[in-house]
Amino acid sequence: MENTLGPVWVIAEQVDGRILAVSLQLIGRARKLAAELETSVEAVLLGDKIEEQTQQLFAAGADVVYLGNSPDLAFYQPEVYTEIIVKLAKERQPGIMLVGSTSLGRELAPLVAARLETGLTAHCIDLVLDENKILEQRVPAYGGLLSIICPEKRPQMATVARGVFPKPELDGNRTGEIVPLDVPEEIPRRIRTLEIIREELEGVPLESAPIVVAGGAGAGDLEGWREIADLAKVLNAALGSTRPVVDEGWAALETMIGQSGKMVSPELYIGLGLSGELQHMVGIADAQVMVAINNDAKSPVFEQVDYGIVDDCGEFVPVLIEKIKEYQREDV
To answer: Scanning 63, 78, 158, 286, which has its CA 20 to 30 A from the CA of 231?
Structure first.
């Protein structure tokens, strides 16, 4: 693709006809980037029976929506979605393409980038323009932030998780142009979705939980992790984790908070046995009160929280659980 500024694109995502929050958040950031570049914001929306959802994208700041609306697009198909987006991108020449760091986006974005022979930065926590109007894609690295640029190839592509950017104020009076897309029939489909069975998630959802209890490798072992999980249950809190906990197999990937996990904005965050690495801490946005328990008094996590307790999690957590239960019994 030519080295052109081009429009700013957002690959919008919907589930059962509901536009995901991350897509609206990305349109909000795209609006700011487009204003600096003096270009337009364009969204790509694929699915079935989703004509009405285009208005949400306009209200968030999109000027144009490329709409693939067909029963063949009701379920996400990587080969089909990739073919449609790549063909359209080659025709329209976007300068920037933003994708949500969702399960869909994490698969789709690299497929599109490879076909367009361009770069892709995953799990960005900020997007700004430098003095040459090149997109700085910022990710946590080496205890700080690393800026990645794609100076020649286009589009400049980045994935961003939900909650990194705020949701824009929606303007219901905004309108825009809808460009219908054809669904190519000749695309070879090695996989077809026959049925989707929704998993019933247990516990409090991380993204909306007022209290989050997060544990790290300092849990020690599976039994120590279970004690942290018990604390979350007693507090009616969501249970979060760090990458080492997931790698050990103590918790599912869906519990991971941070750069490559989920973003949380709780009223109370309690971190147990974690060091406070930036890759995890960037996933905590605007927590009102943050507490950390770690047996290392020099742990970096204590520099990032409101209250710090130097103690061993294995000894501290059972005592805390018992004290909370005593308080709850007295309060009945």
So the answer is: 286
